[in-house]
Amino acid sequence: MNRQHTVVDSPYGPLTLVATDGVLSGLYMTDQRHRPAEETFGEPDPRPFTEAVRQLDAYHAGELTAFDLPLRLAGTPFQRRVWDELRRVPYGETRTYGDLARALGAPQASRAVGLANGRNPVGIIVPCHRVIGASGGLTGYGGGLDRKRRLLAFESGNRAGALF
């Protein structure tokens, strides 16, 4: 297993991109919960990330609403199902943990969905920020609630960030 990483700037602070065997396997924010140890990121090398950086730049510019990148996501089968379902949540929309659980055919699994959501290794691209609580309020986000609020406001067209 060959790993490389690079760090890119974003409106949400530096993002560390990690590739495993040339395929994007991680996108981590500073101070992110469940962020792996730096020594697991591999050697610095921007080459595997050209397309990911291009799409992230277009997303941050408001020109891209859906990412089209190959991903190598390491997780349990249930986590990977949750992450696949997250990729189906449209730009500018939100879903509750219960909505995702029902979409997965496991309506009683809201808590498990929440735990899997929190372990998403590729934030923003796999849009775990689009998941909210059953009451419609913001709930935990590995990158911090301020970033979640800002991402949701950005996607809703509310650049001031006053959505929630």
Automatic annotation (TrEMBL):
GO terms for molecular function: methylated-DNA-[protein]-cysteine S-methyltransferase activity. Its EC number is 2.1.1.63. Residues 6-73 form the Methylguanine DNA methyltransferase ribonuclease-like domain. Its main location: cytoplasm. PROSITE patterns: MGMT. Keywords: Cytoplasm, DNA damage, DNA repair, Methyltransferase, Transferase. GO terms for cellular component: cytoplasm. It is found in: Cytoplasm. GO terms for biological process: DNA alkylation repair; methylation. Residues 77-156 form the Methylated-DNA-[protein]-cysteine S-methyltransferase DNA binding domain. Gene3D superfamilies: Methylated DNA-protein cysteine methyltransferase domain, Winged helix-like DNA-binding domain superfamily/Winged helix DNA-binding domain. It holds the Pfam family DNA_binding_1. It catalyses: a 4-O-methyl-thymidine in DNA + L-cysteinyl-[protein] = a thymidine in DNA + S-methyl-L-cysteinyl-[protein]; a 6-O-methyl-2'-deoxyguanosine in DNA + L-cysteinyl-[protein] = S-methyl-L-cysteinyl-[protein] + a 2'-deoxyguanosine in DNA. InterPro entries: MethylDNA_cys_MeTrfase_AS, MethylDNA_cys_MeTrfase_DNA-bd, MethylDNA_cys_MeTrfase_DNAb, MethylG_MeTrfase_N, MGMT, MGMT_N_sf, WH-like_DNA-bd_sf. Involved in the cellular defense against the biological effects of O6-methylguanine (O6-MeG) and O4-methylthymine (O4-MeT) in DNA. Repairs the methylated nucleobase in DNA by stoichiometrically transferring the methyl group to a cysteine residue in the enzyme. This is a suicide reaction: the enzyme is irreversibly inactivated. Belongs to the MGMT family. This is Methylated-DNA--protein-cysteine methyltransferase. The lineage of its organism: Bacteria, Bacillati, Actinomycetota, Actinomycetes, Kitasatosporales.
